[in-house]
Amino acid sequence: MDNFIKRGVTVYSFKEKVTLGELTWEDCIAAMSNMGVQGIEFLGQLFFRNCPDINAEDIARWKKLMWKYGTKTVAHDFFVDKTMFKNRTLTLRESVDIVKRHVQFAKAADCPIIRIGGTFDPELFRQAAPICEEYGVKLGVEINNGSSSWILPSIQRTIEIINQVDSPYLGIIPDMSMFVKKIQDSSYFVRAAHANGVREDLIQFMKEAYESESNEDYRMRCDRMLTETADKAEQDFIIQCRRTEYHDPRQLLDHMPYIIHIHGKFWEMDENCEETSIDYPNILPVLVEGGYDGYISAEYEGGPVAGDPFEPLRRYQKMLDKYLGTYPGYPMPKPGKPATDVEVLSNKGFKNRYDAEGNCTGFEVYARCFYYRGIPLCLVDDCQLTVDGEHFGTDKISFGVEGEIFRFDEMSTVQAYYWNYGHLASIIVDKPGGLDESVAHTFEYSHRLRTYYLPFNHSGNATVTMSAIK
Questions:
Q1: What is the pLDDT of residues 417-449, one digit of tens each?
Q2: Comparing C-alpha atoms, which of 297, 258, 282 is closest to residue 6?
Q3: 393: which residues sit within 8 A by CB, 6+ positions away?
Q4: Predicted TM-score (pTM) of this structure
Q5: CA 346, CA 341: separation in Å to the nearest integer?
Q6: Average pLDDT rounded to a whole number, residues 270-284
Q7: Is residue 215 within a helix (H) or strand (E), and if so which, with residue range?
Q8: How does the average pLDDT of the chain come out, rounded?
Q9: What pLDDT, on a 0 to 100 scale, did the predictor assign at position 3?
Q10: Is pLDDT at 330 greater than 60 in this prediction?
Q11: By the 8 A CB rule, do 144 and 245 touch?
Q12: Average pLDDT, stretch 137-146?
C-alpha cells in the first residue's frame, strides 16, 4: 500500500520503566531506532529540567541522542489547564503565555509540533497562531476519548477556530483511543477494577453494554449508574467506562486537511500483531486514502510481554507493516521525459538589444554554468563567441546576472554576483545593427572558469543553430 506515513513513538510509553531505573532514555531510543522508528515524541517535563524554560545543557544532551541513533524529535506534549489555580480561572493571556514558552522551548529543541491537552479556552488557538508562525512550530489540539473528545462543544469550537484562522501552523492531533471497538480485560481500567475487587458481573455487564449501545446512550447509562452506587471502586470503573468511545474511522477524512500528527494509542498487541481493542484495520486504510503523510506516534499503555518491555512496540510496528506496507514504503521514482535545453549555450534563441533612442546596439544569447558550486563572476576566465563565422572576443562581450550587467574587463573584481549551477547568464555582444531576425544563425560558444580548489580550469562549449526569440 503506497503511502508516506512515518513511524514514531512517544517516550510516555517508557516512563514507568525509566522511573524504576530499569531502563534509561537512551536504552529506549536505541531500541526504537533498531525497529526502524525514526520519530521521537517527548513530554518535556520527563527529560528536560525546568521545561519549558530552555536548559542549554539538556537541549544539547537530547540533540546528541537524536544524532547518535539517527532519530529526530517530532512532537512535544504539554497541558494548559484553566483550573490550575485553586481560587480563580486561568486567563486567556496567561494561557497564551504558556503556549509561547512551550513554542520557544520546542524551537530550541528542533521540535516542529507541540500537542496541547487540558481544559483551555478555544480562542487560545486564534491568539497563538502568530506566535506559532513566528517560530515555525505547529500547535495541535489533542483529540482523545473522554475529556477531549471531538463531540465536546469546546473541541468542536476549537476545530471551528482552526478552520477560520486557516494557518498551516494550527491543527488537530487525533488519538486512536477514539476508536475503541470493545472493552477488553487488557484495558488498564478493567485490570484496575479486577485488582480493586469490582464485581465480575458488573464488569461483564459494562463490557457488553458498550458493544450494543451508541456513545451517547452508553454515557447516559454510566451517568445513571454513578448515582446508584456508593462503592468507590465501582464509581472509578464506571467513570473510566464512560470515557470510552467508538467513532467511524471515516470521520477522519473530514478532518484530514488539518491533521498534523497522530497518537497511536494501544493497550495490548496479541501474538498475531493485532490491537485487540482499537479498530486499526479500518483506521489505517482511511489514513492512506486521505493522503496523511505525518507520523503515527505509538503510545503504549500496558505492561511488558514475556518480560520484554519492547515486545509490544515491536508487534505494533509489525501491525503497521501489515496495513501500511513495510516501512519505509516510498515508491521508486520513474525517469521523466528528458529536457531539450541542456547545453552550455541555451537553445532558447537570441534577442537583439536597443538603446534608449531605439538604436540596435547588438544581441544577446544565454549561457549556462555547469560548475557544481557556481562561481562569482571574478572567476570567469575567458568567453568566446562566433556567429556564422564572425568572431567576438572578450572586448565585445558583457555578462548579465541577477539583473546587473558587467563588461568582461570589469568582472575580475566582481565577487558579490554569482553565476550559479544550471542558471543562465546573458551573454551580451556589441554589434551595431544586431543580427538578422528573419533567419536562423549558428552560434559557436565557449567559456573557461577558474575553480576554487582544482588544479585545472572548468571549460564548456557548444554549437547551436537557433532563431530570434519572438
A1: 999 999 999 999 999 999 999 999 999 999 999
A2: 297
A3: 384
A4: 0.75
A5: 6
A6: 94
A7: helix 215-228
A8: 92
A9: 84
A10: no
A11: no
A12: 92
- Give the C-alpha separation, 367 to 422, whole Å: 9
Give me 220's grid cell. 447516559
Extract the runs of DSSP E, i.e. beta strands, from 242-389: 262-266, 295-300, 351-354, 360-368, 375-376, 380-387
For 81-223, list the strands marked E by DSSP: 113-117, 138-143, 170-174
**First-to-last CA distance in the chain?**
48
The position carrying cell 488498564 is 188
Angle at 72 between CA 14 and CA 324, to 5 degrees: 80
358-387 confidence digits (pLDDT tens): 999 999 999 999 998 889 999 999 999 999
Taking alpha carbons only, the member of 101, 213, 448, 435 closest to residue 224 is 213
Q: Is the peptide bond before 328 cis (omega within 30 degrees of 0)?
A: yes
| Least confident span in 40-44, 92-96, 332-336, 400-404 | 332-336
Q: b/e string for 363-397 if b means 16 or more Cβ within 10 A? A: bbbbbbbbbeeebbbbbbbebebebeeeebebebb
Do 440 and 467 meet the contact criterion of CB atoms below 8 Å apart? yes
Residue 176, H or E segment: none
d(CA 95, CA 99): 6
Instruction: Tell me if 116 sits within 8 A of 141, measured CB to CB.
Output: yes
For residue 263, give the nearest of 115, 71, 110 by alpha carbon: 115
Helix (H) or strand (E) holding 40: strand 39-43
Residues near 152 by Cβ (< 8 Å), separated by ≥ 6? none
Instruction: Note the pLDDT tens digit of each residue in 401-421.
Output: 989 999 999 999 999 999 999
Q: At residue 329, does pLDDT exceed 70?
A: no
* Pairing relationship of beta strands 170-174 and 262-266 according to DSSP bridges: unpaired
Spatial separation of the C-alpha atoms in residues 235 and 241, rounded to whole Å:
10
Place of cell 486567563: 91
Backbone angles phi and psi of 45, in degrees to 5: -70, -15
Q: CA 399 → CA 178, 306, 388, 430, distances in Å? A: 64, 73, 21, 12
Q: How do beta strands 351-354 and 295-300 pair?
A: unpaired
pLDDT of residue 149: 80
Tell me the C-alpha distance between 467 and 470, whole Å.
Answer: 9
Non-local (6+) Cβ contacts of 42 within 8 A are 10, 11, 48, 62, 73, 75, 76, 77, 111
pLDDT of residue 396: 97
